[in-house]
């Protein structure tokens, strides 16, 4: 059986002001696979991720042209379609950033935040989802007794796993990770890599990275950013 | 260090010392001028007594009460309006609205208070008189409305600064979690900015308690304990403005320096609180 295409990018051009960062990018990402995007710093890898969930719209001066489709519930949907709410897109195409960015609230509330945003009011259901997300992010055993504590008291690696748990809480189809281990020590990075391998299959992963060894260990498919475009390397 | 550098340093040091000594010398000046009162009355008498100069009573409790009542009430009115305006400026409104709104608010901080006072005298006072059948119409309520309007722009700018200081990664985290702009504002931005908001409140309180003209023109100036917002009342600042015409040697005149000290302590405390809260807010976000 052919693998299902989860994300299709066509002729994506991206500018910051007058500077073109990406030009006519075409790419496909397969369902349940982990695709790595590699390349030197400052060439638009993170920008590319932000084009997939329209987060670039939050960046002043940024401008994206082209088409991005995401397959959701069996239908391909154009992310820029006005009838497709951007808030729903961002819940289903979730993102984890380079530097862990816990919200200034408790551990529990951080993970429950996407649920609150979706309007879920049932506390029992929320508690269940939070526990499940924290388990999937390998964090439950470390924090189960301190869920009411401020999330910013966690270590860097724990904070990043918390951010992954927060992204997982809304049951996303796609998880975008922007150099998720680059601000962490080797041990914490190792845990996150292991975690990404367990997420493969249930979730489509797009990981920006500049550690080639990491990419070789994890990725099913690798794109490289070069000459303002994305090239399939393997 | 060259000679010129040493000289510059000395001049700047002297200027700093002067600037620091000035507020202190004002306090000392007020204590000295209020001394005639302290020889025949205790501090408690002055701070808790009534104002009946013909009977030899120079208490300023009614004025303190009116000042606090008016300042706190105007704070309560201005807070939601300022929060809303600052929210719109922060990005809840499209840029077409945001930019002119911010300009307007900045412009409004510069209006002289006498303008608000005039509008109050000719529009508000008659309206309050007719609507509530409240004597002359000069009462705390008539002063409350323009005073709230006066502190709203200042408070809005303080709040805008507090919102602008919320770290960007936190905003991105909320947006990437699927929060719409209103959810992000209410659940993430306001809680993150709460220390800055509190500091803005305290500074606006200082401004409200220190305003003289609006209260003088609109509150009615009866030197008795206010029993409601429709009562003619006199604030500390209006009291100072009214009594300053008294005989320099009289005890009435000395009493305005007690008012001055109370105002001085109130606004200094407000400024100190705000300063501490801002410092805490900076540590917190940094």
Automatic annotation (TrEMBL), chain A:
InterPro entries: AAA+_ATPase, ABC_transporter-like_ATP-bd, ABC_transporter-like_CS, P-loop_NTPase, PstB-like. One of its GO terms (cellular component) is membrane. Residues 7-233 form the ABC transporter domain. Keywords: ATP-binding, Nucleotide-binding, Phosphate transport, Transport. SUPFAM superfamilies: P-loop containing nucleoside triphosphate hydrolases. This is Phosphate ABC transporter ATP-binding protein, PhoT family. GO terms for biological process: phosphate ion transmembrane transport. GO terms for molecular function: ATP binding; ATP hydrolysis activity; phosphate transmembrane transporter activity. SMART domains: AAA.
TrEMBL record, chain B:
It is a multi-pass membrane protein. It comes from the Bacteria. The keyword Signal does not apply. One of its GO terms (biological process) is transmembrane transport. Keywords: Cell membrane, Membrane, Phosphate transport, Transmembrane, Transmembrane helix, Transport. Residues 64-274 form the ABC transmembrane type-1 domain. One of its GO terms (cellular component) is plasma membrane. The chain crosses the membrane at residues 12-34, 68-92, 104-128, 140-159, 197-219, 253-275. It is found in: Cell membrane. This is Phosphate ABC transporter membrane protein 1, PhoT family. The lineage of its organism: Bacteria, Pseudomonadati, Thermodesulfobacteriota, Syntrophobacteria, Syntrophobacterales.
């Amino acid at each position: 059986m052919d693998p299902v295409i989860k994300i299709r990018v066509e002729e994506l051009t991206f500018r910051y002001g007058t500077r073109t960062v990406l030009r006519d990018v075409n790419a496909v990402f397969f369902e349940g696979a982990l695709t790595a995007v590699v390349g030197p710093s400052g060439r638009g890898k993170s920008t590319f991720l932000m084009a997939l969930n329209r987060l670039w719209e939050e960046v002043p001066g940024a401008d994206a042209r082209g088409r991005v489709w995401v397959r959701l519930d069996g239908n391909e949907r154009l992310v820029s379609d006005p009838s497709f709410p951007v808030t729903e897109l961002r819940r289903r195409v979730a993102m984890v950033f380079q530097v862990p960015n816990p919200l200034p609230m408790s551990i529990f509330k951080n993970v429950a935040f996407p649920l609150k945003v979706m309007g879920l009011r049932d506390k029992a259901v929320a508690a269940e989802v939070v526990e499940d997300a924290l388990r999937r992010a390998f964090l439950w055993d470390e924090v189960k007794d301190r869920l009411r504590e401020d999330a910013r008291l966690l270590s860097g690696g724990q904070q990043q796993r918390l951010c992954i748990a927060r992204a997982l809480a809304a049951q996303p189809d796609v998880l975008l990770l922007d150099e998720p281990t680059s601000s962490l020590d080797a041990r914490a990075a190792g845990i996150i890599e292991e975690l990404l391998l367990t997420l493969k299959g249930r979730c489509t992963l797009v990981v920006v990275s500049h550690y080639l060894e990491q990419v070789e260990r994890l990725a099913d498919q690798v794109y490289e950013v070069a000459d303002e475009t994305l090239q399939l390397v393997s | 260090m060259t000679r010129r550098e040493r000289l510059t340093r000395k001049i700047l040091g002297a200027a700093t010392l002067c600037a620091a000594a000035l507020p202190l010398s004002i306090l000392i000046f007020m204590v000295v001028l209020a001394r005639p009162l302290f020889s025949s009355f205790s501090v408690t008498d002055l701070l808790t007594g009534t104002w009946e100069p013909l009977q030899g009573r120079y208490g300023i409790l009614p004025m303190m009460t009116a000042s606090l009542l008016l300042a706190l009430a105007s704070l309560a009115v201005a807070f939601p309006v300022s929060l809303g305006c600052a929210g719109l400026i922060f990005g809840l409104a499209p840029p077409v609205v945001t930019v002119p709104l911010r300009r307007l608010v900045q412009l409004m901080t510069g209006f002289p208070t006498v303008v608000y006072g005039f509008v109050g005298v000719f529009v508000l006072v008659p309206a309050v008189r007719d609507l509530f059948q409240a004597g002359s119409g000069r009462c705390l309520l008539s002063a409350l409305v323009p005073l709230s309007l006066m502190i709203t722009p200042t408070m809005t700018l303080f709040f805008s600064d507090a919102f602008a200081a919320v770290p960007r990664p936190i905003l991105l985290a909320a947006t990437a979690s699927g929060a719409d702009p209103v959810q992000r504002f209410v659940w993430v931005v306001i809680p993150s900015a709460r220390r800055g908001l509190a500091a803005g409140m305290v500074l606006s309180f200082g401004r409200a308690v220190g305003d003289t003209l609006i209260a003088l023109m609109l509150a009615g100036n009866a030197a008795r304990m206010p029993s409601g917002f429709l009562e003619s009342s006199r604030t500390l600042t209006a009291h100072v403005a009214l009594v300053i015409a008294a005989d320099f040697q009289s005890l009435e005149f000395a009493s305005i320096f007690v008012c001055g000290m109370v105002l001085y302590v109130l606004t200094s405390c407000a400024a100190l609180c705000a300063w501490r809260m801002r410092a805490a807010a900076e540590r917190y976000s940094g």
